[in-house]
UniProtKB/TrEMBL annotation:
Residues 304-431 form the Phospholipid/glycerol acyltransferase domain. Its EC number is 2.3.1.15. Belongs to the GPAT/DAPAT family. It is found in: Cell membrane. This is Glycerol-3-phosphate acyltransferase. Pathway: Phospholipid metabolism; CDP-diacylglycerol biosynthesis; CDP-diacylglycerol from sn-glycerol 3-phosphate: step 1/3; Lipid metabolism. The gene is plsB.
Amino acid sequence: MKNFNFAELIFRFFRAILAKWMKTTVQGGSPKELELDPNQPVMYAIRGPSLSAQLIIDQECTTRGLPSIRSAMPEAFGEKRSYITLNKRQGSIFSKRWVPVTSVRLLNSIETLQNNADYDVQIIPVTVIWGRNPDKEKSLFRSLFSDNWSSAGKLQQFFTVLIHGRDTLVQFSKPISLRSVMKPDEPAERTAKKIQRILRVHQRRSREAIVGPDLSHRRTLMRSLLHSNVMRQAIQKEAEEHNITIEKAEKRALKYADELASNMSYSTIRFLEVVLSWVWNKIYDGIEINHLENLEKVARANTIVYVPCHRSHTDYLLLSYILYQNGYQPPHIAAGINLNIPIVGSILRRGGAFFMRRSFKGNPLYSSLFNEYMHTMFTRGFSVEYFVEGGRSRTGRQLTPKAGMLAMTVRSFLRDSKKPIKFMPIYVGYEKILEGNTYLGELRGANKEKESVGGLFKALKHLRNSFGKVRMNFGDAIDLKTELDNFRPGWRDEDYGDDYRPEWLNSFVDLLSTKVATSINSSVSVNPVNMIGAVLLATPKQALSEHVLIDQLDRLKKLLSLAPYSELITLPEGSGKDWVKYAEDMKAIDRKEHSLGDIILMDETQAVLLTYYRNNILHLLAIPSLICLLSSNNRSLERGYVVRFSKWIYPYLQNELFLHWGEDEIEDNINQWIDALVDEGLIQIDGNCLMSPEPGGSDFVTLQLMGQPILATLERYYIAIELLRIRGQEALTAEELEKQATAMAERLSILHGLNAPEFFDKALFRDLVSILLERGVVTKADDDKLVFDQQIETIAEDARLILNSQVRHSILQITRDQGGDEKDDNANLKEETETKSD
């Protein structure tokens, strides 16, 4: 009782009052998470001598079973409290600032450890953020009472707690061993300064990760951009080229800056948090977050560039919401200028969006300003978010990257590499997207809908619907410095001017963009709708008996577990039976009751939408699907041939689907999948041969279904190859091949009733032609006409092992029509009738 005095009673009284008012989010606040040694004393390191911070920290320590900051250290230390402050307030009453100070308590503890080898001190850095407000508000009231980088006086701190206390974050970081920092014969004063410097850096990084770096008023930022060397030169050039005054060119640049710059507002972020919490609860069955620890590893000491896949307009809203909910600074988001519409644009800008034009072509002043704005974001340590795909994927696949933003990021880093940059790939998986019907119309030829306020009100009707569950998986961070070291070891020694573009930049950015897209795919989250789409779409009529569908779903999940694509992918919980009911409740599929067992099926609209969700996981199925397709179409094949053929076609699949294995690694994965398929009974081994199961059995049905997802991709390849063969050497340019192959694929899709809109996507044919050129299968003559080698004949021959005779016949017939053979109308009618009857 001797330590329980009047001062302690007052402290506990105020702590109890504050606890009634406060609403805190706590990170890392348990002995298990902190991995504390119960036999060694604990000391807390806090920013400054703030009573409110001490009260809330002590309350959370008591709640979570941690030692109190008010408790005394062991007798050998002679200290009545177990916390140290890293700074003190200094300055006039109206201009106080934080000044580093050496803690006497820390100094005494170091001297104790020097004289007593039995002890260590576990120092836990603790960060308290009142309101998590980026320090840039132009509102006087919010600036006065927000938690920021300045030192608050007692009155200001009182109002800060009063106004923002319901949104407080307390972060306990992993303890630092005081003895591990000490060196033999080092003076205690030097050790104290060293450990406090380490703790201050940690505190600063923690605060930056949560509230963002110290940023001045938006207008001040914009004007500072205009005074940089790059912009002074750009303004001068603009004035000369357009024969206008410097003042007029500056006004033009300032107008661009006003159009571009974000205006992140804490009040808007809090408003959006409340609104979005309500919206997500209305339309989603939950938001599942996986591998957030990948972000925790890098967020403190790096500029983070978030690079999620782009499926929906909700992507960036979800990411900012989740980051804010988990105590991270919401990023500044690159948004298309088309979203800068009345009301919505203003809200998005205050939520962190900056608006970019779709094209910078012909406007060097705007281009210079945008690059300088991005450079300012990166060098000041602000997290940024952009989509490497450019636009939303209408097909559900990972789109070919548009590397403009990545190039700007790399160029900025080459100019100033003091602040490390980490790319954080993120996969966002939906069971149902809000834009589903819009995408459906666009894929059928409708014009892309323009964003408008009217469209916003139309979207409100969706609040009555359920869109299932959203899953967000954080991938492995990509370190820009490491990637540069691997690609260009001497990059640090090169001279980079403000507007310098090294000759190797484009090649590096292409590799980096591919790695980002591949890393997004490596962190995919599989959901029940993906799985059902993969199975039902593999059937001729998109229908299966319920018990067969359930069995196929369970087997597919088992196969994906036997040979996991990566350590980061997540599979849905439950079984096939659960998923069928779930998808039926979401109206993704229909049920037809029957006396011999219910049938699960889907109509045309459901089939096209499920193609979208199946395509989300197509890269997971590519290699096993190829092996199953070969095995189901051939009773027996040598294992060596299956491996060789799969290795040969892999680069084309890798280019299209962003598969992560290198060409020197893929053979092991092919063999892993063959072994998994053998273990599951879908393939049998007879010596060196792979044998398909007896037709008609459940194993053979599964083998056939597993072979279907990759079939459309191979058919598309075969169309381009046959068109080249039939037209002959030097008959087509790359552009002509792309155009004619697209038309042929569209015709084949109509004849066969294919519900895969990407089957005749021009971009996919463009990528195929590019990889054929890159690998030297085709080359360009002097007039840009394509020339091909003997590999083309080998490919056409191998197609017989993959494609059934009906599909090969249809492709050959259409390519011959395209090649110029005339047929009368009756023959055409006969062809189409026969194809449809098949």
